[in-house]
Design brief:
The chain has eight helices and 17 strands.
Length: about 375
Amino acid sequence: SPVTGATGYKVYRDGTLAATVGGTSATVTGLAADTAYQFQVAAANTAGESAKSAAVTARTGKATDPGPGPAVPKHALTGYWQNFDNGATVQKLRDVQAQYDIIAVSFADSTATPGQIVFNLDPAVGYASVADFKADIAAKKAAGKSVIISVGGEKGNVTINSDASATAFANSAYALMQEYGFNGVDIDLEHGINSTYLVKALRQLSAKAGPSMVLTMAPQTIDMQSTGTEYFKTALAVKDILTVVNMQYYNSGSMLGCDGKVYSQGSVDFLTALACIQLKGGLDPSQVGLGVPASTRGAGSGYVSPQIVKNALDCLTRGTGCGTFKPDRTWPGLRGAMTWSTNWDATAGNAWSNAVGPHVHALP
């Protein structure tokens, strides 16, 4: 609290005068990263200054602390970026098409410690150094894009089924955010999840990373058939910190729509009737996205043309372009669409992002 009779305050850093201010707040610059400093304050007036306050220790952030990331736009395009070469066009992050608002780096790797993740930059991508990769993340974020680390895939399956593994996940994921500048995580676990402990892990991570953390999920169709599945329970339990669920409408058998009818891959109805389950099951429209392959080679099955994706987006947000399934209402706030992958998109001449990206960004 202000000291009566004081005309200003002197701020000392490690015993040395660092700033003199007239008010009750001060900004001290020129500090090194990841360094502890001691601060003391003395009240001053024309007669002199008071004894210094008790010392307060503060540590500056690491040089790569991500800080708040850019805000995700109202309608967003998500793309997975491949940290490996599987025959698709090899990209550096700087090459990722400008239409993508959220770039999910695929994938983190698991370790022998349950719940713990690490990231290993694949030499096949062609970076001269890890520093170059980090610089590309920073540049994408400066351009307003979110760059997040995806957890899952074949090699990165992580088991979070205890308090210890939940904490290990949160600590290691936050460490990757600090080291690389990722501003969130994507949950792409395909071997079953435990909602109780995954929710604990995500809550702990959110508490560390702050409110700007981007949290996405990419469940399979079977995972989102009802609110009783572990994935759907997880999504609802973290609804206050969840950015978007981009369900994978591919490599799937036939599924039930929200009208109880059976729909199969390849149609606009498959996209709209299954999204309807999430929209009516408690997720906010801004938390629902349509995940599809970028090319016929991007998935074993389920590729649909960009026109079908655009029709499904219009059906859900505007009530136009529907197939036989016509929802009884519209959800103009629908978040957008996702694709696997930015690399397969590039292989196909960017046909997917060139068509779907502008359409997503022009949604109501």
